[in-house]
Amino acid sequence: MTFAWYGHLKDKGVLLWKAILVSWGIAFFEYCLMVPANRIGYTSGLNGFQLKIIQEVITLVVFCFFAVWYLKEPFHWKYLVSFLFILGAVYFAFKK
What we know:
Elements lengths: L1 H5 L9 H28 L4 H22 L7 H18 L2
């Protein structure tokens, strides 16, 4: 989803409607994987909150690499601190 949502930012010459169609095309295939993954996770004992938290952490990790290498944006220490707080949320979401 990262590339579908943010990949068009570097190429400002692409018309918005074309960016939307390409993004939807990319997202369709990712949803084809995400829906079964959520179903499997849910039937394996994870609840909806846990599934969403897992998805957000994966998205943030992928986005960090994407932003640095594809968008060429600097990675600041404040993003690391923010990510650590999110990992704290993951800890509490899975704590028994």
